[in-house]
Amino acid sequence: MFRVGASRYGCDLRVVQEIIPFRAATRLPGAPPYVLGLINVRGTIVTVMDLGNRLDPSRAPAREGAILLARHRERLVGVVVDQVADVRTLDADAQRATDAGGAIVNGVATLDDGAVVVLDLEALVKQVLLS
Questions:
Q1: In this model, does residue 28 exceed pLDDT 50?
Q2: Three-class SS of the chain
């Protein structure tokens, strides 16, 4: 699970290759505001997107947090979140599909301590690669 603002999110852990500390990205001219730019991760150039700004365009760009390195085919994309909180297994029955947020939301899981929005991180990464 991870946090963006006051909301808790989760994703399929198989998509996340690694979690690294936030680092500044080199801005790409003409990129959408939610694309922070490029970083170098051990010789691999990675496009970085700001999940907070992607979900709420009025939000200021991220300056701290963590970067989830997510894989889409052979490409890596960094997804900036405010905080990585926990790793938990969710029961398939605990998730219910929803149309909220369009194609990037797989459902909402209810845990003892509240709800977690389950994102389709692969769909988010694909959107960044196509932008």
A1: yes
A2: CEEECCEEEECCHHHEEEEEECCCCECCCCCCCCEEEEEEECCEEEEEEEHHHHHCCCCCCCCCCEEEEEEECCEEEEEEECEECCCCCCCHHHEECCCCCHHHEEEEEEECCEEEEEECHHHHHHHHHHC
Name which residue leads in pLDDT, 100 or 34: 34
30 C-beta neighbours (distance < 10 Å), count:
7
Q: What is the mean pLDDT of the chain?
A: 85
Please name each of the domains of the chain with its CATH number. 2-130 (2.40.50.180)
